[in-house]
Amino acid sequence: MRSARKTKTVDAGKAPTAASTMNAIVQERYGSAEDFRFARIPRPEVAENEVLLQVRAAGLDRGTWHLMTGRPYLLRILGFGLRGPKNPVPGIDVAGTVVAVGSAVTTLTAGDEVFGIARGSFAEYAVAREDKLARKPVNTTFEQAAVVPVSALTALQALYDVGRVQHGQKVLIAGASGGVGSYAVQLARAAGAEVTGVCSTAKLDLVRSLGADHVIDYTEDDFADGSHRYDLILDIAGNPALSRLRRALNPTGTAVIIGGENGGKWTGGFGRQLRATALSPFVRQRLTMFVSKERSRDLERLTDLIEAGAMTPSIDRSYSLDRVPEAMRHLEAGEVRGKVAITI
Ligand SMILES: NC(=O)c1ccc[n+]([C@@H]2O[C@H](COP(=O)([O-])OP(=O)(O)OC[C@H]3O[C@@H](n4cnc5c(N)ncnc54)[C@H](OP(=O)(O)O)[C@@H]3O)[C@@H](O)[C@H]2O)c1
User: Which residue in 231, 224, 225, 161 sits closest to 193, CA to CA?
Assistant: First the structure.
């Protein structure tokens, strides 16, 4: 993670110029959406391997929720800040226009339209590392591009690089209606798999519309009841026990554990991932855990897939920058279908 910069609210007595400040969401301590403050703060400065972006849109994702709450606590020990977030401006996903480049930047120039990862994207300007950005797909708006990075990188890498999806395989996606799942369903279909999506009743239509061949309403049916078996399971939500995952897998199938909420305040239920990795060498099934990687070459793969029509960002709602707290409450309520965008 990029080293933190101190972000101070501008002191009215110092008469800052409009060119040196910007509107942003600021959060000084871990807490809830009530701790988000709309403020005028200094614009960030670029390091040599970074670019300054005029943010046109940002995306909201679960990771931003974790950094807002500081939960699971493991995050704090891992270096994201003990008492409050190291970077007081929230937001990870970004789409925007390059307005300045650091001295060591070689692939981007002012005026380029890009998308990717920029910690502190809930602001009018944000800095981003060159190797975490890629060219914005020509057939998307900035809003659409902004909701792609974290969720679609996760879906892409989990499905292709870790899950090694094959044409004709039966693939189950648990958590198909959310950020990661809405991309995973589309990408699995694009790979020629037979896709089953697991979600709640209200979102069955969304998951069908994304291209799932079959849907399972987890409030009515259990994907692990033994009636169907899958070659590959992407376990994105619901925290199923390992025994249930294994029951739903073919004898030589693969399960990729990506996430799941409500798994405990200290580790977020990470023990499930560790147990899966420890058990995997002793069984015929492949049980894996996965942490996504933020890299421009995979963002470029996403650009190609979007431009080829294999994947389209699914935006539930858009909010203006001053309404980020409302957007976060919408996510927390579990109401989001696909993704939420923040327009700047
Ligand atoms: N490993 C990594 O690198 C990585 C990267 C990104 C995200 N993650 C993690 O992955 C998880 C999902 O992220 P996200 O961005 O997709 O979150 P999200 O947008 O909040 O979506 C999660 C979805 O899970 C569904 N869900 C809840 N309970 C379920 C259940 N019992 N069975 C099936 N679906 C259920 C919800 O839909 P319904 O209303 O339909 O239930 C919701 O749409 C989070 O825990 C996140 O932290 C991990």
Answer: 231
